[in-house]
């Protein structure tokens, strides 16, 4: 009934049934039927369609006499265009069904997504807006969750990035039995009425997980193109959905059987397996992949089996019988035969296995392989005598056994009761091997687990760790890999090797194996080899402790592959720079504490103990907090059970200390109780001599400590907490990973904001909002900008401030939406200049601090500070040489001003040193003093270089564009025209003094006398300005917005400022216009001054320049810029302060938070996909 209801609502309330606001219809006079030719969501879009019809279709219709022929022709033409369009798009996604492609196109159009944003699936559902459900469509793309609904004239559009999702959960409400809750930092969204809520929720989890992975290691989603095509066409399932389903199955398959990360499941089928140890046919599933055949029984503990194809010798179909239908026998090199039966498609299965067997390379056993039936017996003396020589000579390491065998003391314990017990354990395992098989093809049952819980004998520990962890598979399929890594990494030094060297002597220093160079050298090689294999992790503290224990029971190569299995599969993300995996499992531990030990949970939360203890327990697998003999038994069970066992034991430890912990007053007391307890967990069966433990200090007290047997602790953990399931833990890991990574991102945001807040005028709230926008723009480049430098792999070792950086195209997009200085079409030009100014290291990327520094210059500070930023934007390096007509003069002018001064100062210091006859130490002292002065000197307005005429004209052009949409634009135009006229005259007067020849001995005097003259001329200039004739016609809006440079120029547009350096010095510059009325061709007096010298479209035919030597036609149509003319920042500032309109404009406050809010509203919903395509390609 529920599904019928949803289906009916879909038909009645289908959002796709909304009529487009603009349509073009074809209808003949005598017909009542009309045909929809085109539709559009905006007037611009429909006009584009109409123009195409006018050019390509309407002219042809005149040749038809019959109306029916016209209708037939139009229908055929439109259908042909659609067919051609579909044909062009077919190769791009030929696997996707037609209906799905239609939904994808609708999604892109509706939400403004580019083509690179792929739709995974879409679902009909209701979104709860307040108390009213909105029926619509939920679109799940690779990077976004989108929802659209149009109901009873009301439209709802939602776009959420997966990287912003903080929580996903299925909830039950009173109205609906099931709904999905999506939480972000700002809101909680509820979706319900799904036809298949489990499928939808699972897909949402996968996509959110991919997004978290992107935040963690910057890996963008890559579709798997190698997926086999489905045998039957799948209705409405995209290739991406199939890809994600396959990934989920592969991950589950690899985790269940501990297989290498590149193993891909080919298929699975129901069957039964004959188990000789109990003479039964066990029902379960057979899984077949490229290199393995695996079996898992339906009853969890009944039987697991892994058969590597490299071990298989014969695969044959046996004769069917009523007792054993469709049997299949598989024989291996170790003389074991496995019988499967009740196979549905046996012939196809045999064919697939045969194909995989043909591709499996036949490898000879490598020299480092263990012989499972007879452990290698190498005498300690031979191992000790051979290895050091080999390593010192730089040869490939050939350690043949664990260090424990080389450094075992001849203890009497081996002959006593403990030795006898150890022998009994070994015998138990030998019997087990005889019944269940030995090596990778062993039947793994509840009996295997029981033996592991009782402790693995020391002689078998390395062998079984390799088997249960899956490390053996990777080792035998990569012969010589470790030796090559050691050879390549020898003599190489980096940050990881430095950290390794620092920690080598802290790794189990109490054990004799690591009190000499042999053990230390082996540990160094394994850790360094892994750091070179996986530079993302490199080296992390706690890896040394775990690796040192692995080396006690395995040779170097085996220890290396065990470390690979630990870091990359069994404890994912544990050993990266932010120990994300350990924090995730810590979150699971807290959740389990709330579930199993509710009384203790609240107390532990108040004390903050869990976050302290769990990291040390999980990262080192209890090796750093328990006596070695006991902790190694924990490691035994961990390699068999995985993280489930560590959580189980942790709960048992808290449970055992509950009463004492509930009475604790602070964290220190709780830590002491737990530390004392763990220090007294003993292994009475250990045959190795006890090793002093670092926590011995905690045992001091009045009462003798109570010893806890490790095997009793393990038994208790299974009795009380064995109902933990691996699948449930994986589900909890996803939930906690969202929480942990988002928490780390918040920490990073606070850290960055705190680092930049001291020097920036923005408030903490504004900086946090800016950081969110900045990071979002960076992430967009990762999944939409394929070739951008900013999308290069992020180095997690860098400080948070340097991890996110954007390029010029991204900066322009942010600048346009956030700047208070909107300049119309000129805004991107201004953005490019600011980017070049901020990019001090010239790597074409800027970080967050540089970004907010640029923004702060426009938003904060007084008029002087804001004008200083604007002034710098019109000098090199901000001003591109290509942006002005006389690039050479502009650049050389700037270089003269800055570098010459520096060189002169430097040479002066050397000269001073020589004149005084000082020693080299003395002039070095002066150099240091000079460098110190340069560093500490804060830039003042006097330090700013002077501006050339063309740079000044560019500045005027910017100001003209900046005022074009202001409410008081006419006042601002008049003010800037007045200031520009004044400054041009000041520049002329200044040029007269700069042209006078000056002797070198008078340089200092000349420089000092220039400023007073400039000051004296200001009143005169103002006086002459007042007498100037100025006529200010009204400028049309269209004239005001085209201040940017254009390549095509008419003669009128080529007008430039005449050479005003003629004889008539001091004559005022007057601007006259024949028409003072508002006209399309007229403009303000300012626009003539600011744009006359460059390529501008605003200059009218009837505009003339008066009062300069520009009356000749040559001067009027293209005279050159005056290179001797210059103006200083102080002169510009003083002039602008005389105009109230300009002062008010630059001192008005703009709310950046409102700008950010508007930018978020506009982004994606109202932008076309072509905009994104342009931005991603141009980067």
TrEMBL record:
Residues 362-381, 995-1086 are annotated as: Disordered. SMART domains: GRAM, TBC. It is found in: Membrane. Residues 455-642 form the Rab-GAP TBC domain. The keyword Mitochondrion does not apply. InterPro entries: EF-hand-dom_pair, EF_hand_dom, GRAM, PH-like_dom_sf, Rab-GAP-TBC_dom, Rab-GAP_TBC_sf, TCB1D9/TCB1D9B_PH-GRAM1, TCB1D9/TCB1D9B_PH-GRAM2. It is a single-pass membrane protein. Its main location: membrane. One of its GO terms (cellular component) is membrane. Residues 833-861 form the EF-hand domain. Pfam families: GRAM (PF02893), RabGAP-TBC (PF00566). Residues 1035-1051 have a biased composition (Basic and acidic residues). Keywords: GTPase activation, Membrane, Phosphoprotein, Repeat, Transmembrane, Transmembrane helix. GO terms for molecular function: calcium ion binding; GTPase activator activity. It comes from the Eukaryota. PANTHER family: PROTEIN VASCULAR ASSOCIATED DEATH 1, CHLOROPLASTIC (PTHR47666), TBC1 DOMAIN FAMILY MEMBER 9B (PTHR47666:SF5). May act as a GTPase-activating protein for Rab family protein(s). This is TBC1 domain family member 9B. It comes from Bubo bubo (Eurasian eagle-owl).
